[in-house]
Design goal:
2 domains; alpha/beta; single chain; two-stranded antiparallel ribbon; 343 residues; Helicase, Ruva Protein, domain 3; Rossmann fold; globular; 15 helices; 5-stranded parallel sheet
Length: 343
């Protein structure tokens, strides 16, 4: 499959104007680490293309933010951006949600429903967790990508749609193809323009930048006015020793918990503030296979989140293996992940 001329001759990040890249993406993402810069170097050019983009990265690495950047920096910026989590919708309902249905098409279809493709006309459709899409929906998606038309369930006419698709996955879709769970021809169609997002543990320069930003935002959200306490360099160094299985989402949640403990008279926070948020187990190196530490004051939802993220880390983001390790079904694990997406 030929890549459109607008994105040929991919440049190395070392030859990219780093400040220019930051400026163009600053409305969507915060980063300074070269690992993230290299991953995002092609995003401005990819944004000008109409070809599908496939984003791959662990949970919490910012895939939807990159999708929004691809939309906002491209010619469809004034059109709709529609996001769908394929793993959060029951298999039996996903086709109806994506492609729509006519009144009376099935029990409970009391009115005509425009699917997400129609809603995203002249804009961008973001398909998160594309690897969870059932086989029947994969066939229909491939047909839309090839022909630019959808047919509502229960309908007879083809409806033309002008939609740019950005898909995202936690782990390589090749694994799903080998398992017979994902169509190879659909994979070829989706990965015309691939973007691999690094985990936070591989972005050490961004940990302090993001932590300070999230802490400030959390404090301001609590009503703080003026200057707010910040993390000193020793505190940042402490955070850089942690593996961050939940990536940026976990860091944001931790800073929100820290903000609740901070006193107004403080100017800066040192590493001792993380004694109750991180332990020696939490400060593991990125390849260690140790148990996850859960703060004593963590809520049940936070504890579940940390356990699931650790199981995913130890199994290379293999949900089936992680679910087995935790003694739960894959669908149950998926439900817990979806309920934890918002910090």
């Amino acid at each position: 499959m030929r890549v459109s001329p607008a994105v040929e001759n991919t440049a190395d990040y070392s030859s990219v104007d780093q400040n220019g890249l930051h400026d163009r993406l600053s409305s969507y993402l915060v980063f300074r680490d070269p690992a993230m810069g290299e991953a995002l170097a092609d995003v401005p050019r990819f944004a000008r293309s109409q070809e599908p983009v496939l984003l791959q990265g662990e949970t919490g690495t910012g895939k939807e933010l990159v999708a929004r950047a691809l939309h906002g920096l491209g010619p469809r910026a004034h059109g709709p951006f529609v996001a769908v989590n394929c793993g959060a919708i029951p298999d039996t309902m996903l086709e109806a949600e994506l492609f729509g249905y006519e009144k009376g098409a099935f029990t409970g279809a009391s009115r005509t429903h425009r699917g997400r493709f129609e809603q995203a006309h002249q804009g961008t459709l973001f398909l998160d967790e594309i690897g969870e899409m059932p086989p029947t929906a994969q066939v229909s998606l491939l047909r839309v990508l090839e022909g630019g038309q959808v047919q509502r369930i229960g309908g007879e006419r083809e409806i033309s749609v002008d939609v740019r698709v950005v898909a995202a996955t936690l782990r390589p879709l090749e694994e799903r193809v080998e398992s017979g769970l994902f169509r190879q021809d659909l994979l070829y169609r989706l990965q015309v323009l691939p973007v691999q997002l690094p985990p936070l543990r591989d972005r050490p320069r961004d940990i302090g930048l993001l932590a300070r930003r999230f802490l400030s935002q959390s404090l301001q959200g609590m009503g703080w006015v003026g200057a707010t306490p910040t993390l000193n360099d020793a505190a940042v160094a402490r955070l850089q020793t942690y593996a961050w299985p939940g990536n940026v989402r976990e860091l944001r949640n931790m800073m929100a918990r820290l903000a609740i403990r901070v006193s107004p008279e403080l100017d800066e926070l040192g590493p001792d503030w993380f004694d109750t948020l991180l332990s020696s187990k939490g400060n593991r190196n990125r390849n260690a296979d140790q148990g996850v530490w859960i703060p004593s004051d963590a809520t049940l939802a936070e504890a579940e989140f940390l356990l699931i993220q650790e199981a995913l880390r130890q199994t290379g983001n293999n949900r089936r293996a992680a679910a087995k390790r935790l003694g739960m079904g894959e669908r149950t694990l998926r439900r817990h992940l979806n309920s934890s997406k918002k910090p």
